Amino acid sequence: MPENASETKLVNFAVANGTRRKIINFLGNGDRSTREIEEIVGKSSLNFHLKILKDAGLIELEEEAVKLSEYGRNFLKGKKESNPEEITDFSQAKPIEIASIRQVLPCIADASRLRISANITPPLGRVLKLLVTLFQRSSYSDRKDSLIIQKGEIITTIYGSGKVSIRMVKNENEAKQELERLKSTINEAIAKGEAPAPREKVKVNLMEIYKHLPQTNCGRCGEQGCYSFAIKLMARQAALELCTPLKEPEYVNNQEHLEVLVNYI
Ligand code: SF4
């Protein structure tokens, strides 16, 4: 604990720098070697930053081993409690691996395509939310703790628990390629240790929305038909949930496509 004004100043100075905050967050997940920290924040000025953190009493440094001091642990705990939702970088995340594909089944909506389940380790937990900016067509759901990523017809859902489901793939190979693509995109962001910049705006057009609606013109949404409903969605005058037929199993893929698309309107 800083006991006087000059010690408080040292701590404030130490945590005012983004690289040093990144190091503290990284150590929050366990003790590290200087080499591991170097991989996260780079070699340049590493010793300088470690010295400042040590002088502030936030870390303990013994040869190559670095760990949070008791004060450092309390500091990090206090920071999380005061703002539990804030995750500003990937420093607490570890690179992911794709564990084996667990299940291959025909798609409910299109039996000529497959849906495949897999696992990623370690689970991404709260970092998952940040990944939404990495993929051009994606949407994050707090309620389901899931990230839906759309690429062409393929829909991938990653859950905070580590479970992954890929739908509408032609074969197992295509699923493996897609998983590899996701893995390298995510690991690249984790290696940089920073939240990605906001993604570019995706242009959504009326026909694309209409194409994914059930097109039965049942009127349950309160509109004359699907085309009118698509116009309302485009004008942000209606919510997707009003189209209740989308909840039926045969429209599961359409619903996920639309959930991503309406984010960009
Ligand atoms: S409820 Fe859905 S399927 Fe029925 S008319 Fe409206 S948009 Fe079309």
Tell me the CATH superfamily of the largest domain.
TATA-Binding Protein
Name the helicity range.
25-40%
Total count of domains? 3
Strand content: 15-25%
**What is the overall silhouette?**
elongated
Low-confidence stretches: none
Widest β-sheet, arrangement of strands = 4-5-9-8-7-6
Q: Distance between the terminal alpha carbons, to the nearest Å?
A: 50 Å
Q: Which class do the helix and strand fractions yield?
A: alpha+beta
Helical element count?
9
Briefly, what CATH class of the largest domain? Alpha Beta
CATH architecture of the largest domain: 2-Layer Sandwich
User: What's the Cα radius of gyration?
Assistant: 23 Å
The CATH topology of the largest domain is given as TATA-Binding Protein
Bound molecules: iron/sulfur cluster
What profile does the largest beta sheet have?
6 strands, antiparallel
Instruction: Report the mean per-residue pLDDT as an integer.
Output: 82
DSSP E strands, number: 9
Features:
elongated, binds iron/sulfur cluster, 3-methyladenine DNA Glycosylase II, Chain A, domain 3, Arc Repressor Mutant, subunit A, TATA-Binding Protein, alpha+beta, three-stranded antiparallel β-sheet, 265 residues
